[in-house]
Task: inverse folding
DNA sequence: ACGGTCCAGTAAACCGGTTTGCTAAACCGT
DNA sequence: ACGGTTTAGCAAACCGGTTTACTGGACCGT
């Protein structure tokens, strides 16, 4: 019932204008192939019937969809909870619009990412945060659609966009060490699939290596119990800090692997009566836009969020073009520390409740 | 060159399995129509060829795309700059995934929203923030695709999801008045198209009415020069506050129409040496997730951002179903004030530099 | 042995465009 | 008046599936 009047098709227009379907098609796509008055007439008739070429039929005939897909292993609602993704998506959107492409999101459908990939009609796929344990990469490759991985170094031969996580993390930790901090707490991002936590290519592992390297240079060891994981959101940060505190951790500084979590950690710390940065220094990762507006403004590691999105679109548009084995498949962006107000020199030693069993 | 091997089609599978195309189709979609061993054989052959039904062809044949579109009059990169949209989109994504639908974004393509609508292959459209001056509404309606407007009361007969802006704004202003504030500054959202600022249905107009109503109840008038507009982002809030300050405004409280702008305003105020809330109270609008994590936590007007997104999907799936003239086309959600830490009793009168020409 | 149901599978139409190859007419210079 | 080149437009194939109508054989009860 809902379709009051069936949409008019190209055949309707052709009939009404007394021409062939081909002519109608030409009138819109290659008007120079027709006499200008015929074009005008056809267009007139088409407008009268308010004809609009069916995009799906056009896709099928042309073999292109004019769409890029952003693929994420997490559900979209958790994805959107982290502003990091918003900034990345903004970059994708900018470049996509410049190229005349629409943007579609591909996320697990009824729990299955594979199914979602199958249903997706896109010319290219930008896959963010896929680990090596995700078989969908093979699925995508086999499908023949150009794709690019973002934030996954898991498979060094796959085309990917990454950032220098280790260097960034190193700079963050070095900054804290320089300020005199020795009791560090790391708040990391928990992997989508539980098993992958140990994977050395997982972002948390990469950044942790950087933290440990800088700490190690100063003779500090970051123990396993000084590393706590959670989802990359503000809630995740709160939760993680409270959990660490409850477990007896009494850090003077926090290394958070995401700004969202860093913000959460600052919040949690404040709830526990700690002042930032007087009692506790906090360093984030991402340099989200909001990092400038927190109180205090967040010291963090900058990575070019939007730019990564833009570059991803460009590379995926290139498709297989850059199949030059000389240049590396991975495009790496630099990271750098941005010092703001959430870090300060280590507080003088205070009386501490000795709740460790020593 | 990039397509090493052409993707195998249903015809290839049919040939290889020695059956008809129809049989292959049945094997996947209606297996009960075939003997179970035939199904198994076909599936086996298909897997061997790693056949994957072309989603576009399927869409064309079935006449459905399995996709909902989120339409925005602004470019996606500006949209994503406001977390409000992220939360709304998260709601849409949740409901869409539950219904097995993909999500596609529709935003102006090369400056033309109409063009973007034409290219979009979706079963339903969720249009956010479209004003009455947007002719695309007519275009969408004519296309016969189910649609729903969000945040636009412009056209009372169109199906829409709105919130009680006026009541929310009223509560916000009443709160400030109760705290003794009399010098109020309003920071509003500038419309996408310049002309629409005056439109009484534009969100800024609606909320302004609420502010004025509450102020008026207390005998306070909000003058035109105490209303400044900007884009709904943190930068917009900063800019707006500085602009007002430069123009000589010395408010004791700010009514911001978006949390993002409120956060920006707090920031700007702090830069000017004002303490929030001791010297300046700030009330936002939206109750974004981040509003809990700012410092101080933001007093704001809650509206159900995610829920609006979920409801939008539901309504659009219903399509024309609810063409019951009895129930109103507009679905309105309630708003309510959430008092946190950014508002306080008005500060005692202080010495003020008289930079107005009085 | 017979007509009637079921069952498994097929052929072909269909979705709504694009694109290729062709034709008939107009136009060209000589 | 004529062969050669454009020009304008058409018919039909094609993209890759789904779906309808149909068929031949197996199975059924009597």
Result:
């Amino acid at each position: 019932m809902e379709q009051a009047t069936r949409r008019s098709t190209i055949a309707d227009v052709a009939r009404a204008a007394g021409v062939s379907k081909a002519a109608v098609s030409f009138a819109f796509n290659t008007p120079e192939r027709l006499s200008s008055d015929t074009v005008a007439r056809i267009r007139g008739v088409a407008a009268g019937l308010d004809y609009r070429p069916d995009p799906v039929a056009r896709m099928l005939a042309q073999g292109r969809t004019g769409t890029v897909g952003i693929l994420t292993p997490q559900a979209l609602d958790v994805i959107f909870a982290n502003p990091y993704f918003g900034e990345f998506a903004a970059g994708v959107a900018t470049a996509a619009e410049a190229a005349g492409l629409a943007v579609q999101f591909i996320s697990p459908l009824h729990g299955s990412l594979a199914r979602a990939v199958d249903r997706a009609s896109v010319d290219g796929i930008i896959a963010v945060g896929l680990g090596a344990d995700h078989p969908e990469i093979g699925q995508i490759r086999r499908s023949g659609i150009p794709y690019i991985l973002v934030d996954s170094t898991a498979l060094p031969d796959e085309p990917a966009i990454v950032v220098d996580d280790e260097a960034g993390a190193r700079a963050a930790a070095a900054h804290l060490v320089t300020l005199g901090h020795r009791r560090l707490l790391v708040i990391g991002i928990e992997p989508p699939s539980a098993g992958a936590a140990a994977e050395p290519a997982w972002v948390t592992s990469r950044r942790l290596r950087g933290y440990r390297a800088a700490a190690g240079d100063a003779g500090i060891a970051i123990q396993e119990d000084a590393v706590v994981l959670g989802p990359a959101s503000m809630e995740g940060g709160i939760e993680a800090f409270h959990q660490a505190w409850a477990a007896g951790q009494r850090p003077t500084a926090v290394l958070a692997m995401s700004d969202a979590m860093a913000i959460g950690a600052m919040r949690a710390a404040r709830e526990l009566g700690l002042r930032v940065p007087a009692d506790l220094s906090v360093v984030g990762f991402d340099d989200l836009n909001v990092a400038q507006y927190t109180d205090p403004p967040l010291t963090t590691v900058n990575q070019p969020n939007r730019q990564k999105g833009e570059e991803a679109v460009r590379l995926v548009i290139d498709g297989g073009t850059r199949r030059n084995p000389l240049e590396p498949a991975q495009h790496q962006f630099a990271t750098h520390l941005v010092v703001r107000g959430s870090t300060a020199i280590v507080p003088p030693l205070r009386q501490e409740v000795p709740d460790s069993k020593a």
Q: What stands out?
A: Chain A touches chain B through 71 residues (CB under 8 Å).
